[in-house]
Amino acid sequence: MPRPLGELEDAVMTRVWKWNRPVTVREVLEDLQQDRSIAYTTVMTVLDNLHQKGWVRREAEGRAYRYEAVSTRAAYSAALMNDAWSQSDNPAAALVAFFGMMSPEQRQALSDAVRMVQGPQAQTLTTQEPEASEDSEGPEASEGPEGPQGPEGTEGPEGPDPDAGR
User: Fold this and answer.
1) At what angle do helices 7-19 and 40-52 cross, to 10 degrees?
2) How many Å apart are CA 10 and CA 50, to the nearest integer?
3) Please, where are the H alpha helices in 6-103?
4) If you ran DSSP here, which 8-state letter would residue 67 be given?
5) In whole angstroms, what separates CA 128 from the centre of its chain?
C-alpha cells in the first residue's frame, strides 16, 4: 500500500488534486510561494519524485511537462486507512477505537457511505422484519421508525415491492 506523502509532497499533491487538471511546475510554484519561500527546482524535483512513485503522470509540452494526478485524494486516504487497518492484530478492536474517535459529523458520513456501498437492495434486506407468522398482529406490529413503507427509496412507483428482500 502507499506510504504517506511527505509534507512538501502533500502540499504539491493538494494543488494537483484541487485543480483536477494537468498542471505545470510554474503553476504549482506560484501557488506554493503564497505560503512559503520555495525554489522552482525544488517543486520540479518533488513533481518528478511523485511521477516516479506513480502519483502523477506527465506529458511533455514544449520543453516542460504537465503533471496530472493518477488517482484522487479520496482514493489515497482510503488506501492509507486500509493499510493501517490491515496492520492491526485485532481489526475489529481497531475499528471500534477508530469509530470512538469520530465526531458526530464523521459518523454520519460513515453511515451515508455504508448505505451507498450497500445500495438500496441491501438496505431493504437489513431493515425488513422477518415475515409475520400466523399468530402475530400483522404488519403494523413490526412497523419501525420509518413507517410502514420502510426507509426512503425502498418502494417503487406502485408502492412497496412485495418481493423485496426475498
Assistant:
1) 80
2) 10
3) 7-19, 25-32, 40-52, 73-86, 91-101
4) E
5) 28
Q: Tell me the residue type at 163.
A: D
pLDDT 10s digits, 114-158: 999 988 765 554 555 444 444 444 444 444 334 434 334 433 344
Mean predicted lDDT score pLDDT of the chain: 80
CB 38 within 8 A of CB 25: no
115 phi and psi angles, rounded to 5 deg: -60, -40
Are 128 and 165 a contacting pair, CB within 8 Å? yes
**Section 95-109 average pLDDT:** 93
Task: Say if residue 65 is exposed, middle or buried (CB neighbours under 10 Å; 0-12, 13-18, 19+).
Answer: buried
In 3D space, the residue among 1, 14, 10, 16 whose CA is nearest the CA of residue 69 turns out to be: 16
d(CA 155, CA 162): 9
Question: Which three three-digit cell numbers place residue 72?
Answer: 484522487
In the numeric block, the cell 512559503 is attached to: 36
Helix (H, G, I), strand (E, B) or coil at 72: coil
Q: Are 6 and 87 in contact (CB under 8 A)?
A: no
Residues 64, 119: Cα–Cα separation, whole Å: 45
